[in-house]
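Page 37, continued from 36.
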């Protein structure tokens, strides 16, 4: 009931902030077309930061990020309430690949976006399936995060996006499903794993790792939501609302 109310409120907020929150740029990277068959999911341990380095498509630099999304998977449809009303949570980060080299490859280094920890709803409650998509709009990126995206930040030609899931217990399992090679942009088929503060680049014996994600942008920076509109709705409340706008 509460989530339905938040979705309704978010729709109204989108109209008010259409000059910023509703902006969706052109494709910079897209790996959401075809899931690997038979279905293959990389399940995440609790509090493990795992991510994929992606390369943007040709002819898109410089670009400013306007929105991104990624698909997650829960075979038990059990993310809503675990162990007496405790939500499964996630933290999403974007890094430049300018860190200490691992086996000759620059690891994730400078952080340029960090969502902070937020509650992840059940895949079943969103879409009626085992998989759903988390969608980060421009207003999500530019306000209310642990580290907001600077509206003047130019995306590098390649960077790493990571996800950390926490709060899982018992039979609960959540991860990112694998997709066929991107239709726009590319990845290396491996993934970065943060081991006690040190990044390792790993592969999987089952096959290449390619998470279902989409990043969009535009060639000029996009202004932040206006102070007047955000003040009317309450900045903190708006961010919480926006983060719960998912599509199945």
């Amino acid at each position: 009931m509460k989530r339905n109310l938040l979705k309704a409120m978010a729709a109204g907020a989108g109209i008010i902030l259409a000059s910023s929150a509703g902006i969706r740029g052109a494709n910079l990277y897209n790996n959401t077309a075809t899931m690997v068959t038979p279905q293959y999911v990389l399940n995440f341990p609790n509090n493990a930061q795992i991510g994929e380095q992606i390369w943007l498509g040709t002819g898109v630099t410089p670009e400013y990020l306007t929105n991104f999304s990624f698909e997650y998977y829960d075979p038990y449809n059990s993310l809503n309430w675990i162990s007496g009303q405790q939500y499964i949570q996630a933290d999403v980060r974007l890094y430049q690949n300018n860190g200490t080299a691992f086996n000759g490859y620059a690891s994730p280094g400078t952080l340029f976006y960090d969502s902070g920890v937020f509650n992840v709803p059940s895949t079943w409650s969103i879409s009626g399936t085992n998989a759903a998509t988390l969608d980060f709009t421009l207003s999500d990126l530019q306000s209310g995060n642990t580290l907001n995206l600077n509206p003047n930040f130019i995306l590098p030609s390649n960077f790493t996006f990571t996800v950390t899931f926490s709060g899982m217990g018992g039979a609960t399992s959540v991860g990112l499903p694998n997709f066929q090679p991107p239709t726009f942009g590319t990845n290396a088929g491996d993934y970065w794993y943060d081991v006690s503060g040190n990044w390792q680049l790993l592969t999987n014996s089952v096959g290449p790792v390619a998470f279902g994600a989409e990043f969009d942008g535009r060639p000029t920076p996009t202004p932040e939501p206006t102070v007047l509109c955000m003040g009317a709705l309450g900045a903190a409340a708006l961010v919480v609302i926006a983060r719960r706008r998912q599509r199945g």
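DSSP finds five helices and 16 strands in the chain. Flag for discussion at group meeting. The CA atoms of residues 41 and 177 lie 4 Å apart.
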